């Protein structure tokens, strides 16, 4: 068992990370994964976690935190009747399959590869946020299978590799096919459930027995972070929400796009700087 002082320092650093992630998640209306992963990556680095497992640990821990928040969000949206249940039924196997495939990939790729994947997808998300136009459409309704089913698998894979709940990717998919943004956001909460639960177990399996993990970790999931971050993010998220209501939609989209661009370049710098 590590010294109490080491555990306390670890807990305090993660608590500070939770405050930052909670405010930013509330500000930008994102489930938190896109924010938690880079925050965890920085904090785990400051705490001396081995570079070989630092990104994997960040992604796995982020998915574990998304489980209760996505379930709570889905139930709330479901009661309001705005979730596209037909789409979720169609993706009941596709999205979890993608999430499981992501954990299998993560078990065999390096930390550098995971950072590169996160940075590339983050840049694509940033482009969409900064330059988004309401007129951008691919079709008037969602495509039929097998295209729709394969999109679900792809969202599961990419989200599982990034440690996110799939909200930004699913929102983009649904709105490009003419679905209202409120329906897209509500349905994304269900997608988050389908990604985070298999992702959690998958990252526990992928990191089982790995060396260099911090105290109280099971595979690539750190339970100190999970236990601290969930209540802290729920507590401080309203601060970010209040800030969000003081800004326009385009300001928020551009702000999140700029944030994701900075994160992407931070990861690119860690790879090639």
UniProtKB/TrEMBL annotation:
<keyword id="KW-0812">Transmembrane</keyword>
<feature type="transmembrane region" description="Helical">
    <location>
        <begin position="116"/>
        <end position="135"/>
    </location>
</feature>
<dbReference type="GO" id="GO:0005886">
    <property type="term" value="C:plasma membrane"/>
</dbReference>
<keyword id="KW-0472">Membrane</keyword>
<feature type="transmembrane region" description="Helical">
    <location>
        <begin position="220"/>
        <end position="242"/>
    </location>
</feature>
<feature type="transmembrane region" description="Helical">
    <location>
        <begin position="147"/>
        <end position="169"/>
    </location>
</feature>
<feature type="transmembrane region" description="Helical">
    <location>
        <begin position="91"/>
        <end position="109"/>
    </location>
</feature>
<feature type="transmembrane region" description="Helical">
    <location>
        <begin position="254"/>
        <end position="272"/>
    </location>
</feature>
<keyword id="KW-1133">Transmembrane helix</keyword>
<dbReference type="InterPro" id="IPR002781">
    <property type="entry name" value="TM_pro_TauE-like"/>
</dbReference>
<dbReference type="Pfam" id="PF01925">
    <property type="entry name" value="TauE"/>
</dbReference>
<keyword id="KW-1003">Cell membrane</keyword>
<protein>
    <recommendedName>
        <fullName>Probable membrane transporter protein</fullName>
    </recommendedName>
</protein>
<feature type="transmembrane region" description="Helical">
    <location>
        <begin position="190"/>
        <end position="208"/>
    </location>
</feature>
<comment type="similarity">
    <text>Belongs to the 4-toluene sulfonate uptake permease (TSUP) (TC 2.A.102) family.</text>
</comment>
<feature type="transmembrane region" description="Helical">
    <location>
        <begin position="12"/>
        <end position="41"/>
    </location>
</feature>
């Amino acid at each position: 068992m590590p010294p109490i002082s080491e555990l306390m320092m670890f807990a305090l650093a993660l608590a500070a990370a939770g405050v930052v992630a909670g405010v930013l998640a509330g500000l930008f209306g994102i489930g938190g994964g896109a924010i938690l992963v880079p925050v965890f990556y920085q904090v785990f680095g400051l705490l001396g976690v081995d570079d070989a497992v630092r990104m994997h640990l960040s992604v796995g821990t982020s998915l574990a935190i998304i489980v209760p928040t996505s379930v709570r969000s889905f139930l709330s949206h479901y009661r309001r009747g705005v979730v596209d249940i037909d789409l979720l039924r169609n993706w009941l196997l596709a999205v979890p399959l993608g999430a499981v495939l992501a954990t299998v990939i993560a078990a065999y790729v390096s930390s550098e590869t995971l950072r590169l994947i996160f940075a590339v997808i983050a840049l694509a998300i940033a482009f969409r946020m900064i330059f988004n136009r309401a007129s951008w459409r691919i079709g008037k309704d969602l495509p039929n299978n097998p295209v729709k089913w394969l999109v679900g698998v792809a969202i599961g894979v990419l989200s599982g590799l990034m440690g996110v709940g799939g909200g930004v990717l699913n929102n983009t998919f649904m709105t490009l096919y003419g679905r209202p943004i409120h329906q897209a956001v509500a349905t994304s909460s269900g997608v988050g459930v389908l990604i985070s639960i298999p992702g959690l177990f998958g990252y526990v399996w992928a990191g089982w027995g790995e060396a260099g993990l911090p105290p109280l970790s099971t595979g690539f999931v750190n339970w100190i972070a999970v236990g601290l971050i969930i209540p802290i993010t729920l507590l401080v998220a309203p601060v970010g929400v209040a800030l969000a209501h003081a800004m326009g939609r385009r300001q928020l989209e551009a702000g999140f796009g700029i944030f994701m661009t900075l994160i992407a370049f931070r990861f690119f710098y860690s790879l090639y700087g």
